[in-house]
Structure formats: C-alpha cells, structure tokens
Amino acid sequence: MALCRPSLTSGLVCLCLGMTLLKAVPAWARDIIVGTEPEFNTAVTQLTPGDVLILKNGVWNNFEILFEGQGTAAKPILLRPETKGGVIISGQSNLRLAGEYLEVSGLVFKDGFTPTEAVISFRRDKEHLANHSRVTEVVIDSFNNPDRFEADYWIAIYGKHNRFDHNHISGKKNKGVTLAVRLDGAESRDNKHRIDHNYFGPRQPLGSNGGETLRVGTSHHSLTNSATTIDHNFFDRCSGEVEIVSIKSAGNVVRDNVFADSKGTLTLRHGRGNVIERNVFLGNGVDHTGGIRVINQDQVIRHNYMEGLKGYRFGGAFVVMNGVPNSPINRYHQVDNAVIEGNSIIESDHIELAAGSDQERSAVPVNSYFTRNLIAHSSIDGIFGLYDDISGIKFTDNVLIGNLKPPVDNGFTFADSTLARSNNGLLYPVDTTLQNRGVPKDLNPIAKSTTGVSWYEKPDKPVDFGSAEILEVDITAGALFAALSQVSDGGTLKLAPGTHRVSKILPVNKRLLIIADADAVIEFERSTLFEIQEGGGLHLRGVTITGAYAPDYKGNSVIRTAAQGMLSNFEVSIEDTVIRDLTVNKFFNVIIVSKGTMADRIDISGSTFQDISGSVLKLDQETDDFGIYNAEYVDISSSVFERINGPVVDVYRGGTDESTFGPHFKLTNSLISEVGAANNSGASVVLHGVQVADIHNNRFVGSASIRVNHTVAEPKTSIFNNNFKATGAPVIVELNSALPQTALVFDNTFHD
Questions:
Q1: Each residue of 185-211: b (16+ CB within 10 Å) or e?
Q2: pLDDT by residue (tens digit) across 157-200?
Q3: CA distances from residue 319 to 308, 355, 394, 427, 630 in whole angstroms, order as listed
Q4: Is the Cβ–Cβ distance between 616 and 591 less than 8 Å?
Q5: Residue 678 needs a FRET pair 20 to 30 A away by CA distance; which of 182, 226, 245, 550 works?
Q6: pTM flag (> 0.90)
C-alpha cells in the first residue's frame, strides 16, 4: 500500500506499502502561506488542528473567503495575514466561517462591499455553522453597498460559543444592522457568545429604520434565550437610529460598555431576564443622546452611569415604556418585575415613565422597583415625564440633587451636596453619606484607546469648512471649474470681484467653502450650478448667484445632489448670500435633494432669495412612506424670501415608523413676502412628518399659510411671535392620531 501526506508544494508524497492508498493526517501544526485565491482554496481543504493559514500581504480584490475546518480547543485553526493590517480585502468580498475552533485575525475590509447578506458571517450556509470560533483584531472600515437602502449586516453571528473581540468597526452608511446575533435555529440559541473590547465607530443617522449598531435576536425568536455577553465595547458616535443596541432576546448581559456622543438608546426591545449593568453613557450635550429604554419582563438595570444626555421621549436618559395588553410578539410587552437600582443620572434632561402611552400602549409598568438611584441636575427641575399610571413602580431610597421635582411623593430624598469627579472621570456626591446611592466607585469606564486594534487609526471628526488652504479664483472662463479639482478637502475658493460665468456643472466631492469679499456674481448656464457628490459639502458666503442665463430645463436648481443617491450624509450652508432670478421655467428650485440622499444639516442665514419660480428647499423626494427623509436639520435665520412661487421649504417624511430622530426644522427672524401662493402646494412652508419644528419671530406678508402635517410619534411644533399680514393662519393636521392636536401656536399677530 502507499502512505501519503499532503504537501502544498509537491502534491502527495507517497510511501508505497502495497496496493492500497491511505491518506494520513499530519500530526504536526503547519504555517501555510498563500498568495492567490486558488492557493487559498486548495490549502483550506487540507487544514488540520493547529494549522496557521497565512495570507500574503497586499490587496485581495473580490475575494469571498470560506474558512472551514475542524480545530480543537487546544489546537484551533488560524487564519491571519503576514502582518496585522497588511492584507486589505476589497471589492465584492466577504468572510464566512464554518466548523469548530476557528480563529481569524488581522484582516482589513475596505474599499468594497459584501455581495451577500454579511461581510463576516459565522456560517457557510443554514446547515453549516461556526461554533467555538473567534474573530479578533479585524477592521471593517466603510465597507458599504453603494445603494444606501440595500440592507446587509457587517457581522452576523450564528452557532454557539463564538467570540467577536478587539475589532475596529466603523463607518457603516447603508441600511442594515452593523452586528447581529442571529437566533434562526435551535443550533444558534442559548449560544453564550461573547462580544467584547470592540471599537464601534461613527455611524451617521440613516434617516430610516435599520440603523442599529448591535442587535441580539429578532421579534420572531425574542422569547428564547440568547445568553450573549456584550462587554467592554466602546460605542463612538453610533447614531444610526433610536436603538443603538437592540436586545430582542432573553438572558443576555450587557456590561461595562461606554457610549460616547451616540444618539439613541440601549433598548430592551423584546425578550426578558436581561441584565444591563455598569455601562457608561456620555452625551456631552449632543442632541438626542440617550441611555436605557426598558420594555418586557424581569429586566435588571443596575449601576449604570448617564451624564449629559439630551434625548427625550423614547430616546431619553432613562425610559420605562408602556406595553400593549396581550401584546403580539412584535409589539410592546408590559414592563413587569423590572429592577432599576444604583444608577446615576447626572445633568441629563429626561427620565420618561410609562412612555408611549396611547390607546394601544395602555399596559402600565407593574411589580417593578426603582431604588438607590442618584439623580442630579443643576438647571432643570422637571426632568421626569409621566405619561400614565406609575403606581406599579415602587420608589425607595433614591436621592435628588438640585431643584428637582420627584415623580411621586415618597421614595426620594433631597440632598444639598455638590458633585466632584473621581479618578475614574465620573461625578459623585462629595457627601460621603450618599456613597451607597448611584454607581459604585469601582466603576472604571473602558478607554477608547484600549478597544479595537492598536494598529489602525480611529476616525476623527470631519474636516471643517475653511480649515485648509485658500485659492484665489479670477473671472476668466473655466477658472472656477478648474479650481474645484485643485482645492483640498476643507479648502476655500475666494472669488475675485466681477462676473464669473460658469458653463459646466460644478461637481462638489469634498467639503468646500466659497467666499467673496467684494462684489462677485456667478452666472450659470446649465440646469444646475453645483452638484454635491459622494463626500461633498458646500458652504457659500457673501456670493451673489443669478439663474437668469440658465436653460429652460425641467428640474433646474442652484444646488442638487447626485441623482443616483449618496452614501455619505452632507451639509450645505448659505450665509450672507443673494440668490435671484430663477424664473426661466415654472419649477426652478434653489436646493433639491435627490431620493437616496440625506443632509445632516442645511443652514441658511443672513441671505436673500428673490424671484424664484419653484421652492428654496425641495426636501420631499422620499415618498415611499417608510419613515425615510432628506434632511435631519434645517435651520433658517435672519433671511429674506420675496416673490417665490413655491414654499420656502417643503419637507416630507411619510409613514409611521418611530426609529428616527428627525426631521428638525427652524425658521426665525426672517421675512417671507409673496411666497407660496402661485404653486400647487398653496403654502409658504410645508412640513409633513417633521418631528421638531420651531417657527418664531418672522414676518409673513401676502403669503400662503404655513401647513404642518403631524404623522407619527409625538412631534413638537411651536409657532409663536410671528406677524402675519394678508396671510392665513397656520394649518395643523393630525393625520395618524386620535389624540388632540399638540402644536403650540401662540402670541402671533394677524392683520390685513
């Protein structure tokens, strides 16, 4: 017979010992280096316990990795690069693990996207899962499907006893949960996974449902145990939607994590018997930053620290929800037997109790305990929001610091104590008699620098407009177009006095400031002047723009976004600028935002808009009624709008989804004259589904009415101290609520 062993260099090495051919498994571990995908595919079929499969450094493009094998606890099978970070996985690529005791480390996924459901999946297919396996020190950086609303996971964990740790996960911009623990079959339940020491970097607001950073389970399997531990992770600006972490299963532990500048909450959405402890939430005054939202039975929330959180309603610092009587599995189960103890809530604006109370959500919290918590605020007294009967919550031994109004008569004491920072960076009362209230002194928040990987830089904030070089632009033909390719991200183009005639659409694919210190006029001869593309943003200051020489094309605009949509949110600012003579056809708009694109901010200040046939801001392209919208914040101040056929702004957010923060709209100290009467809207301002609207200290003259349609949740609309001359009163419509109209309309003046 012949006794053979595999060799990657010479095929089968055989010893002839008769007529029978036997294949022996080597008893020794090997380092196997591969440089191509075919070499990898050959090698992976020959792996034995203890082997190390090494990818040569370089870019591996369009590489779908199936890492499959049977290691042991003592001898796992490893996949790694020659050097950490030395292998870049790009193009349409992914990683699937299947088998036992596998470990992957050191890879970088960037400049591409997965062609399947996940970038990293702990399974080959439904029948072949990974167990007792580990992914560590892996980077996924902006590995996004170019279609913003084409959903995928970045990490999908199946099987049992898997670990995902010390990874760098940042920049997810398309729809889909960043990391999902899947409980599809019995082989993935009661899994005892561990997710720890990861850096979850910035995730921009998606503007729709499906932007969670981490989710454990789904509503379909929420009554079963996952038993996943999530500990010592750093969540940095994770603001995809109202649920940063969504727990939709039972028996999980979320411990010792830090949430920094992250909009939304850690939400116990479904499931029971979860433990949430020793987590730190730092809002730093950022809008919509929240803490913990409690739903369902037997939840334990203890020794968590919350500071500087500004979120409210479902996104408050601490939220206890109402449930739905006899709730279906996908709605809101009643809070029952919740234990809320030893938490510190410091300088955070909203604690919401029995939140979400309405005709459907009428099951108030019962058999629950709120004890030994420390609540302090230096400037606000009414941080408790009470929306229904809270007698089912027993309050004991809680301490209030500041001029706070307790939610009930008993269970709270007032302490006249200052707060001081301890060595762990957290605030504690200087009064030592209060040391058993709030979080313990041994709570040590994990540092961002100790999470993720040490060899890959964590993202900084975007560059500021005007933070790079200044380029002078003269009035010669094509000068402005040429300057766009020369200026760096964050750079400034300074226009010389005179007329700048522009015969090409100006692509904006970086953050760009355009200024004019003296009289400078831009005349453009195309259907649009500026097109904002992926990675772009625009700030205009002191410029005059005329559309008098634009062609008669439907859909003309001064600024538009790329028609195919964009992954990255963008910003537009118009300051001390004049835009006029947009009249060559009936629908000439200043700014139109395409479907599949979203502005983080659009700011207009000190500017004048005259003689415009369309709208100033056309933000109404997401009409599928899925809760999607085109702009998070719109802020208009100290500006003049004269002779505009359409509305100043038309914002549309349809549907009843409650997963988003906005849109937000503000209009102050402005003149609106002869606006909105000559187009189909019949309104000077159109706000449909806007969550926060503030319209005050404006003059409306000879204009159509303001029209506000409330569609979902509990929108905040305030219209006050405005002067309306020959202009109708604001029209407020509650489209999806039987509750009374909630808008605040007061101290306005009306006259002919």
A1: eebbbbbebbbbbbbbbbbbbbbbbbb
A2: 999 999 999 999 999 999 999 999 999 999 999 999 999 999 99
A3: 16, 7, 15, 21, 28
A4: yes
A5: 550
A6: yes
Nearest to 631, CA basis, from 662, 597, 599: 599
pLDDT tens string 88-113: 999 999 999 999 999 999 999 999 99
SS3 43: helix
Rg (CA), the chain: 29
Could you tell me which residues come within 8 angstroms of residue 8 by beta carbon, excluding any fewer than 6 positions away?
A: 32, 39, 42, 43, 46
Helix (H) or strand (E) holding 108: strand 108-113
Q: Which pair of structure tokens corresponds to residue 372?
A: 């030994």
Of the candidates 352, 444, 346, the one whose C-alpha atom is nearest the C-alpha of residue 399 is 346
Q: Check: CB of residue 354 under 8 Å from CB of residue 322.
A: yes
Q: What is the amino acid identity at position 39?
A: E
- Cβ-in-10-Å burial (0-12, 13-18, 19+) of 716 comes to middle
Q: Please report the pLDDT score of residue 328 as a whole number.
A: 87
Q: Is 38 exposed, middle or buried (0-12, 13-18, 19+ CB in 10 A)?
A: exposed
- Return the SS3 of 519: coil
Q: Chain-centre distance of CA 714, in angstroms?
A: 21
> How would you classify residue 137: left for phi > 0, otherwise alpha for psi between -120 and 50, otherwise beta?
left
CB-facing half-sphere around the CA of 622: CA atoms within 13 A: 26
Query: Pick from 603, 489, 495: which is nearest to 542 by CA?
Result: 495
Residue 620, SS3 per DSSP: coil
Please write the tens of the pLDDT for every residue from 356-381.
Answer: 888 889 999 999 999 999 999 998 88
Q: Angle at CA 90, nearest 5°, toward 84 and 92?
A: 140
**pLDDT digits 0-9 by tens, 184-240:** 999 999 999 999 999 999 999 998 889 999 999 998 888 899 999 999 999 999 999
Matching residue, tokens 């269970």: 411
Per-residue pLDDT tens over the stretch 45-83:
999 999 999 999 999 999 999 999 999 999 999 999 999
End-to-end CA distance of the chain: 108
Question: Average pLDDT, whole number, for the chain?
Answer: 93
Secondary structure percentages of the chain, helix, strand, coil, to 5: 5, 45, 50
- In the block, which residue shows the tokens 């449930």? 323
The residues pairing with 19 across neighbouring beta strands, listed in sequence order, are none
Please report the beta strands in 271-379, taking only residues with DSSP state E, as ranges in sequence order.
Answer: 275-277, 280-282, 289-294, 300-302, 305-307, 318-321, 339-341, 344-346, 351-355, 368-371, 374-376
